[in-house]
Amino acid sequence: MNYVPESVRIFVVEDDPLYMKLVRYIAELNPDHIVHSFENGKSCLENLHENPKIVILDYSLPDMTGKDILMEIKKYNPDIQVIVVSSQESINTAVSLLKHGAYDYITKDNETKDRLLNAINNAKRFDSLTSEINALKEELNQKYEFDNSIIGESPAIQRVFKMMQKAVKTNITVSITGETGTGKEVVAKAIHHNSDKKSKPFVAVNIAAIPENLIESELFGHEKGAFTGAIARRKGKFEEANQGTLFLDEIGEMDINLQAKLLRVLQERELTRIGGNEVVKFDVRVIVATHRNLAEEVKAGNFREDLYYRLLGIPIELPPLRDRGQDVILIAKHLLGNFAKENKLGNIKLSKEAQNKLISYPFPGNVRELKSVIELAAVMCEDKLIEVEDITFNSLQKEGQFLFEEMTLRDYTFKIIRHFLDKYDNNVLLVAKKLDIGKSSIYRYLKEMEGEE
Ligand SMILES: Nc1ncnc2c1ncn2[C@@H]1O[C@H](COP(=O)(O)OP(=O)(O)OP(=O)(O)O)[C@@H](O)[C@H]1O
To answer: What is the pTM of this model?
Structure first.
């Protein structure tokens, strides 16, 4: 591909004819620069509609102060980069101008030429990075439009869309529950990218993935020397997400002691970093997700009741894929299309039999599992058609899938009881309640099971 340089319009505002000549000469060293000269602030401001990318501005002009012109330019278009050139070297002036949005401040001396050249190049790079970031943000927002990111027409998913519509209109907490791979993170991102916080950061933290002793500093930050290894001050995720959205995934895994601190921070909307005294205020929309039933966790004493109510906000329950009917096929086709496009595989189709096989499988790993099944099938199939034998399920043994096995009812009963006992830490009372059978029946089955082992 040939590189076509883009022309860049630069305004030079300078009342000293000699200096104007010098600055013009520097700016015109690059033939892609289109340079316009102005002798005073007013004429520069009157011509801003010509869309300069950069304004090189003399600080002391006859009609207006450099600061006033800077502020007018920024008001007109904050993306114009202003490089101020001044004959006085005053730190205070420089700091004040930079605070008001100047890109750089350069003094008139022997080094002006090199520094100005550098400043122009850096401002151009800054401008193209900013445009690139804006374009990417726009692309992300489009990617996370509800219809583009969450495929499905089933009543179960329509209920989710309805809740999401409510969630984007406010900034209250959202709690998302659903089995692994149902799309909890996709929903959280889609809410962020459709809310008025979309131009601010979306920061995700997976509580289960961080060692327990590091979570506090990860969330709230630490000061230098707060603990061994804290070699510098570090902002936490709450501060990183300021004005945007903080997604706390697997919130059910949070240690009960830390839950107390999280509750306090959420209530007060301020935090102190570990080892520090400074109170830091923040403005963050919190979205939490868990595959656990938090209400049960509260009952079992693993999750604080007050935090549970604080986080509940708008509750969104993501249905497992097996409850979404024909959505399985819609999602499969969507994932297949994406995969084929990314890997230049052409237009691959799903045979009717393959579709039936997908529909009748319970997908314990939900959409994530469907994705890997489809991607493997797309690679394995012949003649751009996925047949029934191209679909293979390798999911881990999970609830639901056991129905595929040939077993007696008695063996099934054993399996169910064993599964529940594992799930609820051998709490026989709780399992009896869950299965709606007497606890003596459980003991009886256990005894029989032992006898068989
Ligand atoms: N309705 C959907 N349509 C299309 N793709 C989806 C849908 N739901 C989920 N996905 C895709 O499925 C994968 C798993 O989604 P995600 O990571 O959001 O699940 P999760 O519920 O957060 O999982 P976990 O609980 O394991 O963190 C992702 O690749 C996501 O893009």
So the answer is: 0.66
